[in-house]
Amino acid sequence: MRAALEADGWKPESQLRVLADGAEGLSNLVSSAAGKATDNVLDWFHISMRLRPIEQMSPKIAAAIGDSDEDLKQLLIEKLPRIRYQLWHGKSQAALKRIGRIARATKRLLGFESVDVAERVRRFRQHMIELRDYLRSNWNGLRNYGAER
Q1: What's the CA gap between 136 and 42, in Å, rounded?
Q2: In whole angstroms, how large is the CA radius of gyration of the chain?
Q3: In sequence order, what are the residues at sequence separation of 6 or more whose Cβ sits closer than 8 angstroms to the Cβ of residue 17?
Q4: How far apart are CA 51 and CA 86, in angstroms?
Q5: Distance (Å, whole) CA 117 – CA 86
Q6: b or e along 71-100 (b: 16 or more beta carbons within 10 Å of the residue's beta carbon)?
Q7: Reduced to 3 states, what is the DSSP secondary structure of residue 88?
Q8: How many other CB atoms are found less than 10 A from the CB of residue 4?
Q9: In contact, 51 and 81? CB cutoff 8 Å
Q10: 46-82: pLDDT as tens digits
Q11: Long-range contacts formed by 96-104: CB under 8 A, 24+ apart
Q12: What is the pTM (predicted TM-score) of this model?
């Protein structure tokens, strides 16, 4: 790793930024080779990959509940798509709050009369909880991706 860093122009006074999926393996390898700590950044691709299924499931759940819960429908149709914007623009705390709010609001749908809808909601909530936990465990790697681009 050190040879690869040096071949790429790295010098001991250079700062290193590691773009990864949140696992510590690459960061530890680069830190060890450089002999100093690195700036770890959570890769946007991995955030987006976890967000995409949520975005795809949301309209289907909103359609399934129909007009029975207008507040929840508004959360799913209007508020959920803004999570991506918030995360991209460094508003991670607001995104986490919104994720929590939607996860709590959809909990009441688990007892929905349709087994198919209840299962879809269960999977949706699982994706939401996994995204929330992923963001929390990689909090220090989150950035304002829009500004840093």
Answers
A1: 11
A2: 19
A3: 38, 39, 40, 41
A4: 12
A5: 28
A6: ebbebbeeebeebbebbbebbbeebbebbe
A7: helix
A8: 10
A9: no
A10: 999 999 999 999 999 999 888 888 899 999 999 999 9
A11: 96/132, 96/135, 96/136, 99/128, 99/131, 99/132, 99/135, 100/132, 101/75, 102/75, 102/76, 102/128, 103/128, 103/129, 103/132
A12: 0.88
* Angstrom distance (rounded) from CA 68 to CA 86: 28
What torsion do the CA atoms of 10, 12, 15, 18 make, to the nearest 10 degrees? 60
Grouping H, G, I as helix, E, B as strand and the rest as coil, residue 10 is: coil
At 87, which amino acid appears? L
- Which tokens in the block code for residue 107? 């909990």
Q: Are 122 and 82 in contact (CB under 8 A)?
A: no
What six digits make up the tokens of 15? 């700062």
